[in-house]
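Hi L.,

You mentioned the student needs an example of a multi-chain input paired with its predicted structure. This one should do, with 566 residues in total across all chains.
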Amino acid sequence: MYDCIIIGTGAAGVSAALTLRARGKNFLFLGNPELSSKINAAEKISNYPGLCEVSGAQLKEAFSSQLKAAGIEITPAQVTGVYDMGGHIGVLCGQQSYEAKSVILATGVEAVKPVAGELEYLGRGVSYCATCDGMLYKGKKIAVVCTSKSMEEEAEYLASLASEVYFVPLYKDAELKGENVHYIKDMPQAIEGKMRVERLVFRNSAIDVDGIFMLKSSMAPSALVPGLKSEGGHVLTDRQMRTNINGVFAAGDCTGKPYQYAKAVGEGNIAAHTVCEFLAERK
Amino acid sequence: MYDCIIIGTGAAGVSAALTLRARGKNFLFLGNPELSSKINAAEKISNYPGLCEVSGAQLKEAFSSQLKAAGIEITPAQVTGVYDMGGHIGVLCGQQSYEAKSVILATGVEAVKPVAGELEYLGRGVSYCATCDGMLYKGKKIAVVCTSKSMEEEAEYLASLASEVYFVPLYKDAELKGENVHYIKDMPQAIEGKMRVERLVFRNSAIDVDGIFMLKSSMAPSALVPGLKSEGGHVLTDRQMRTNINGVFAAGDCTGKPYQYAKAVGEGNIAAHTVCEFLAERK
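Structure written out for the whole complex:
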């Protein structure tokens, strides 16, 4: 069992990983090996102490080489659930599962807000994970809402199973192809149904479907972690970055504004130190 | 009147200054132009994200050149008091005073704990400021406890006024000279008296004095700011770095552990953002 699993490879996750390594902890670092896509997009960062007028790409490169020098590897994974198992934490990534004494959520913020009904119908026709739930929709009619090009491969897998795919890319230059793939260029507004999902409603139309996949590069922590307390879309923590769930900590943008690199690395550092205290108390 | 005064030039103060500059605020940055003496002392920092295996001296150099590039100047000052003036904050540095709409305390932690009785007798024979209170002890017998070589100049000034100076340097290579200067190489244990200071007690001796100067390179925020809530020697703040006093914020080591650069820059960043919100609400 790992001492800790860090979920998310943005600035907060990187900071937590460097500190856990410095403290000699046995941890797993899950997320995108290319780090945060947001870091890469920043043109110029003027207020990150120690690096003068650095570009996002340069900061990302600095983080990457620092992780490499410290011998820290990133395990590529899309986390689909985090569960309090009473004494340890279970982390699901599709079919793969991991166990740890503690977890640091450093998942960032999802720029795309949940569609009305999304959280209510989660597990009743709404899914975040093609690998986990794809087979349930073999030969059925589904909608696939995709927020990032990096998730298109999962949409392809779904198209190989479903009879009809209504594909809703929320980015430019989507390339998904297939005879059963129908593009919809509109913003989803609401998910409707009775016991289960029946319909996805857009601004100008609606489609009847058996299921809806919301493929996001990062997920709202409240959707990932059953029972996690949040407010206004942000995980609630105390100043030591403890959440309401024993053994689950959070850091970075997912805990709230300001959405800043300095704030994220600070909270990652604090969370890692609190994890060390937590581990010492467990013994 | 300044938008903000940042007190302290360690990592938290530097981070706050860079962000206030990025946000176009009119602020004063008070403290040691050589930045934190602690930064300089760090041999190797392994977990500051973005700078791989950097030495304290290198990090200090990076901070200094970044401040210079951003056109941020440090005003050398020893702050002796911060006062809530009801609507604005007054900052005293000996005889000099400044006014601001807000203050960020980034004063670090004083490694030397207060001596028993120190806070009780503050203003009744105990002083932190040679410039402010020196004249009160002209021709009198005083003890001067000095925690840092950088404060020796103040001790020299006091020796020019007092009849007898019992000099207690808490560092090596003290150089204060004078016919009326008597060195004591022992740790102060307690300050005693009735209405006012009468005696400074050491492990192995005690001396009768009219006053005691505690010359420290940084002061406990609770001694600087009347009414400031603290706990275990640390300023109490919420997650937005607000203290219990309207317009007074805090960041870095003075708010508690972990004493880490990443944590300090994170809190400096958050405090600066909260100051911006505070200023917007004032308008």
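You could point out the following to them. Chain A touches chain B through 41 residues (CB under 8 Å). Helices of chain A lie at 11-22, 37-41, 56-69, 130-133, 152-159, 221-224, 261-282.

Best wishes,
N.
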